[in-house]
Amino acid sequence: MGRIKSALEREILNQRAHWFNWSPVILAFGIGAYFELPNEPNFSPYIWISIIAVCGFGFIVFPSIATRVLFGATLIFCLGFCAAAFRANHVSAPVLKYRYYGPIEGRVIAIDKSNSDALRITLDGVKMGKISAKRTPDRIRLSLLSKAKNTHIYPGSIIKTIGFMMPPQSPVEPSGFDFRRYAWFLKLGAVGYTRKPVGVLEPTRQSLDLALFKYRMKFSRQLQKNMPDRTAGFAAAIMTGDRLAIERNHVIALRQSNLAHLLAISGLHMGLLVGVIFGALRWILMSAPLFLLQSNAKKIAAIGALIFAFIYFGLSGFNIATQRAFLMVSLMLCAILFDRRALSLRAVALAAWLILIYRPESLLSAGFQMSFAATFALVSSFRWINNHRQGRRKRWFSPILTVVLTSLIAGLATAPIAAAHFNQIVHFGLLANILSVPVMGTLVAPGAILAVSLMPFGGEGIGLWVVDFGLDWILTVASFFSGQQNAISGVVMPKTWVLSLAMVAVLQFSLWQGQLRILGLFGICAAGIGWYQTQRPDILIADRGSLVGVITPEGRALSKPKGAGFVARIWLENDGEKTSQSSAHSHWAIQKPPLVFHHWSKRNSPRKIHCKSNEIHVSIVPQEIIGDCVIYREKDLDRTGAIAIWRGQNGEIKKIDVTLSRQKTRLWSPLGGSRLIARALYSIGAY
């Protein structure tokens, strides 16, 4: 026992240099544990306070390194769990409990576009007919499906219309993306649409954030007037965060060429802006005759770049991706001010700490995972490259090689995460990024800075011409690669543990010092095998029985050629299939033998059915079904949500997974949202 303890302490001491780098990983485990619970935790606050106190006391008192590290890790885990619980309760707001059609009034606080390219607005200060103020959602999201142009809608205006609203949708299949949870943290209590005209009233008062939002939209419109139509929307998106004007075919081309990240104002844009500003200011200061400026050029340039970064942060709308990018850039610039290494794993770990404590729910987002995966991979890789290049002279092709390596490393780091979240692999993404990212850094970013700088003097045309040239090249590259045959291929959605294991395994192999790092390779292989062996459900039944899908040798067969289009698209994407709903419906009639039946139309469904024991009938119409078969009616599916069924070789049911049984009483679920909001104060008092 003594030898094991000594070996453990020796192994832990060998990792001293990376203790802090491991801490956000443990914090993430605590956050993840909260979100994976089937029920909302109802422990006494005193228990959690006692656990944290004991862990903190043990971390300070115990002389054994292994014991102190164990107590410290437990403390961080509990902090992550409590941070997630506190955040979930802190953002609690009313959620619509039923479908609603009637008058809607509210203040516009956000304008964007839906996946169907319809104008979409987010409202606060909502009023909905006779629904009491206590039950009215704080915020709602409304798609405007009217063919009339709604150019009169602007940030801060009060709108009135008549529309259809419903609660945020539950997952379309068990273990699928939970939009209810996503909406809960945005305080979205209802989503819907309207086909009626929208009336607009002037606001009685204007807050600072809405004034800034209004200025952004005005700046975006001015920018679009001074640029060609082909690139105007793209330029507005990367400079102001306004994506309303970008053409849908351009968005699709960027996605299918793995260049969609150029649309979002995130780490790349913030890094390019800061890099250009920092380099230009430092060059100017080094050229100045004053010795004082020359000796402090690096720090003065860092301060100037930080100021410009904050301005860009405000101009882009303070969205979550930009918050993450601004925080990481700020840490890098502050490191320069304090004579520390600007790019280090400690800076990445500190940024992860701050973001996860501030917004624990971001751990589950693809943006957080991909940005930190790319940053970690780039910092680790280039640190290793620089250590092995010391003393060697740089070659003429070094800048080109750096660009290629950057795209290759970032692409490899983010590809598994993108495949897991978006169920596709882009085959020409590396080439497209190599041809586009340097143009974004050398032409678009400097041109945008020049245009903004000269705009007060009326000389923005020079900078915008450079921006237009660069963006036109990027769109040409995106259109070329997205138009290639087999540009993308589908990937089956993995289990949640697969991606988590892969990330931890990569960290184990990269950070661990010693022979135990080989465990990371075993973890990566295990994650790959688990992903490869993922078995999709043989039968999927949508919430309320609107759609049924069955696996056949030709792929997923869908029971309807149209209708429930969102559910159909997600099912097919999770299966890794790149086909349309109508094509998938063509497989429905060739089930051999037909064992699954969907009765959704009164016209085509008989009033009386005699079924067999191995059959499954999903019926949402009034009819009599006689026999020993499995029957799902609309009222049953209201209680269960979407259902996934796995069958054996002989057609017998092996496993059934139900959506609403996975999260019985979470704050954002139909059961938990109504019952647990009333006692949300216990958690606020606990932490």
Structure characterization notes:
It contains 25 helices and 18 strands. Helix 7 (229-240) crosses helix 17 (460-482) and helix 12 (320-337) crosses helix 13. Mean pLDDT is 82; it is low at 672-687. Strand 17 and strand 18 form a beta hairpin. The longest helix has 26 residues, at 65-90. It is α+β, with helices and mostly antiparallel strands and 687 residues long. The protein folds into 5 domains: 2-90; 100-205, OB fold (Dihydrolipoamide Acetyltransferase, E2P) (Beta Barrel); 249-484, no CATH class; 496-532, no CATH class; 539-662, no CATH class. The radius of gyration is 28 Å and the shape is globular.
Mean pLDDT equals 82
- Global geometry: globular
- Total individual domains: 5
Looking across the biggest beta sheet, what order are the strands in?
1-2-3-5-4
Observed structural traits:
687 residues, alpha+beta, OB fold (Dihydrolipoamide Acetyltransferase, E2P), 5 domains, 5-stranded antiparallel beta sheet, 25 helices, 18 strands, 53% helix, 14% strand, disordered C terminus
Chart the SSEs and their pairings:
Elements: H1 2-14, H2 19-36, H3 45-61, H4 65-90, E1 100-113, E2 119-127, E3 139-144, E4 158-166, H5 179-185, E5 188-194, E6 199-201, H6 208-225, H7 229-240, H8 248-256, H9 267-287, H10 291-295, H11 297-315, H12 320-337, H13 345-358, H14 366-389, H15 398-422, E7 424-426, H16 429-454, H17 460-482, E8 488-490, H18 496-511, H19 518-532, E9 539-541, E10 548-552, E11 555-558, H20 565-574, H21 581-585, E12 596-599, E13 608-610, E14 616-619, E15 624-626, E16 630-633, H22 634-640, E17 643-647, E18 653-658, H23 659-662, H24 670-676, H25 681-686
